[in-house]
Amino acid sequence: MASFPGNLEFRDLGCMSYSQALTLQRSIQQDVIASREGGGHPGVVLLVEHTPPVITISRRAAAESHLLATPEVLEAAGIEVHDTDRGGDITYHGPGQLVVYPILDLNTLELRLHGYMRWLEERAIETLEQFGIKAERDDEATGVWIGTNKICAIGVRVSRWVSMHGLALNVEPDLSHFDCIVPCGLHGRGVTSMRAKLGDECPGMDAVKRAMCNAFANAI
Description:
The chain is α/β, with parallel strands linked by helices.
């Protein structure tokens, strides 16, 4: 695997709103693109839990129809709704879910979009393996799965071959919030979490963040 010049930078944003994190992503993406003239940027990986919880809806034609909850239900649950420019369909983000936004030059990684999506899936699979959870890809659906239940959603956007958006790993979110949507627009599929699989043995968020960072650092 080709390596970035310098060390990959990780930034733990703690809890942050979706709109704030999106603004930050766009700014860093432009910095990475502009840095090519000066020899390149090592890349940045943002880690965040989104507060308040949010449902993001892509520009895919049917995505909006996969929002099931009424405005009244969403308001009572404190869930915001935002349009998004990533790929994919409809997704939920909230506390207890580790959202990872890698802003990387795919030219340096020697990847294109399809390969990058599979690369992200592998990072999530490796992270889960560190806690004894066996998860896998599904050839018919993007993301990381345990049986028919998704534990990690993936959706990205690439501009001039620099990525943004990324993956969302369910550590211990409120799974009932996923009832507000058809997750990723896939009927008949469920969602799960590390907490649901491990119970009281579920690691804390900080431990999952460290494992995820190790998975990224070891792959670069």
